[in-house]
């Protein structure tokens, strides 16, 4: 996960350098050290806080977590300007770090675009993970959901897995509910653990009418997969409470509506409830949403319409009035 992004600007010749820094230690300190010997100023683009990510493993009270927070506060006060991925994060920088920041919300890259019906049909028939289900997916008797995960503790995949078990039970009492193909993309340390759970649930017959596939795709195929899906699922729980999952931004870029974990402060800045997605806070809520949305073509179509409107907002609309103006690149 990106903790922050540093922009080092030489205002004498407008040369610039862009650095990603997971983790913020020691990159922020190195960037500031460089600024001492050059005619440069440092701008930090905050996407999360390094200390909050450390706290996931060590706990809030751990000395290293406290030191990391002090370090980031110190580095923040030495920078010339700040961008944040949410308004909520800008408030944290103001109240806890003592610096002012300009909110600059993420937007999807250009290659994340909606698919036409012909493009969707061709892609579903071509991709190995969807090919055998292509006819059902095109007919609507099976729905495609997609979730991108790092298979780490801050994204609890058991939420989705248990919700699918409940949905599977619901399909036996309500045959009108469509089958589901769930494709999970990404790599990470807990992947094998959850693959074992999926195999066990299949052996026990608890995933009838549900098929779960994992995939590691090229960026182009991942963008097409989102464009071909019926619903995106976000399990991002936010270590700081004020960051946002880029995966949801990418989903909106293809016009894909989202069901996501919503129990953190910044969620409403990204998803508008009942317009382009829905939030959940438990397994039961997620399974209920799957049944309601897939049980009503009207509800799914309404969310799709809202997501398609959201996909029209691209980087120029966010960048130019905020970063572009600060850097003197636009009038």
UniProtKB/TrEMBL annotation:
Pathway listed: Protein modification; protein glycosylation
Broad class of enzyme this protein falls into: transferase
Subcellular location: Endoplasmic reticulum membrane
Membrane topology: Single-pass membrane protein
GO molecular function terms noted in the UniProt entry: chitobiosyldiphosphodolichol beta-mannosyltransferase activity
Keyword Isomerase appears in the UniProt entry: no
InterPro entries reported for this sequence: ALG1-like
EC assignment: 2.4.1.142
Functional summary from the UniProt entry: Participates in the formation of the lipid-linked precursor oligosaccharide for N-glycosylation. Involved in assembling the dolichol-pyrophosphate-GlcNAc(2)-Man(5) intermediate on the cytoplasmic surface of the ER.
The name this protein goes by in its record: Chitobiosyldiphosphodolichol beta-mannosyltransferase
